[in-house]
Amino acid sequence: MIIDKFNRIHNYLRISLTDNCNLRCKYCMPEEDYAFMPKSQLMSAEELEQIASVFVSMGVEKIRLTGGEPLVRKDAGDIIGRLSKFPVKLTLTTNGTRLHEFTNLLQDAGVQSLNISLDTLDADKFMMLTRRDHFSRTMDNIHLMIERGFHVKLNMVVMKGINDNEIIDFIALTKNLPLHVRFIEFMPFTGNQWDSDKVITWQQIVSLAQEHYDVLPLEREKHDTAKKYIVPGHAGTFAVISTMSSHFCGDCNRMRLTADGKLKNCLFSQSEVDLLSPLRHGLDIKQLIQDCIAQKYKSLGGQFTNDFERIDATHLQNRSMIAIGG
Fold first, then answer.
1. Helix 45-57 vs helix 286-294: crossing angle, to nearest 10
2. Out of 48, 78, 228, 253, which could bridge 218 as a Cys pair, Cβ 3.0 to 4.6 Å?
3. What is the mean pLDDT of residues 35-59?
4. Vertex 266, ends 112 and 138: CA angle to 5°?
5. Which pLDDT tens digit goes with each residue over 196-232?
6. pLDDT averaged over the chain?
7. pLDDT at 74 over 90
């Protein structure tokens, strides 16, 4: 098992396949002309499979593929097929634009749950936020995934003055669709122009929902990152990922592997441990993994607290979100 100094067992690995993406979301990618990692710097499909096998041998039970946009990688299908052979729950976070090309492959690989990122239900605002015209395709694919039986979570990063006026519209989606909408508090990363004034908190979101609906809280399961709710009679649910106002680090079980093979023990960790270079030199990476997780801070990478109004984002040391993996 992979255990940190707070006795948290880490059995969930998030693997970024690429820092590339076919969208240009402003809170994720700092600039339109972004310098993506060269192919030689990325883990190959074979190397990714090797590293994943080590984690599985150490107790990992769940693997999530992220990006960038994982499905823009040319060998994404091959990687999904390789990882599907492990005895893990395999899942995916995607912007949804290419899911129609991978539906059968995902089902054949045993993928049952998908997280789809969508920050607005307005086509014009989608174009403004993502700098790409893929709204219709994204919506079509959300409906396609539901029709094909996938458990679909819809991730919306809530930003004051940008899309917070759509919170009720997103909850309304859950009335007739078995969607699980997840509102994510806006988090600071390198280059994303974060400001505490742009944060809409968990408490504010729930309070707004209660003005329009009867809202019932759902029981929290161990390792949940989201505070979950249901409107009685609705087919789906909604939740809030309250990283900024009420963190959930106490029973964290997550590790992140960047596309260039660096292990981060927290989304906000300053340090990283290179696994890819030692692997390429034929070295055993198990102890490196153990040592990395052993150094994990109690919460939020040791960089800030839930008193987010006092955060000076310019002093945080981290990658951009797209370079970490969602």
1. 70
2. 228
3. 92
4. 40
5. 778 999 999 999 999 999 999 999 888 888 999 999 9
6. 91
7. yes
Residues 6+ apart with CB under 8 A from 82: 45, 48, 49, 52
3-state secondary structure of 118: coil
Q: Angle at the Cα of 130 (from 126 to 131), degrees rounded to 5?
A: 100
- Beta-carbon count within 10 A of 153 CB: 20
Q: Which two tokens stand for residue 79?
A: 């990687």
3-state secondary structure of 177: coil
Return the pLDDT at 318.
60
Report the number of secondary-structure helices (H) and strands (E) in the chain.
10, 12
Residues 94/44, Cβ–Cβ less than 8 Å: no
Q: Residue written as tokens 């997780």?
A: 293
In a 13 Å sphere around the CA of 26, the CA atoms on its Cβ side amount to: 12
Q: Provide the whole-model pTM.
A: 0.92
Q: Which DSSP helix (H) or strand (E) runs through 180?
A: strand 179-185
Cβ-contact 234, 216 below 8 angstroms: no
Domains of the chain in start order, with CATH, are: 12-324 (3.20.20.70)
pLDDT tens-digit series, residues 9-23:
999 999 999 988 878
CA–chain centroid gap for 310, Å, is: 25
Q: Over 60: is that where the pLDDT of 30 sits? A: no
For 190, which DSSP code?
T
SS3 139: helix
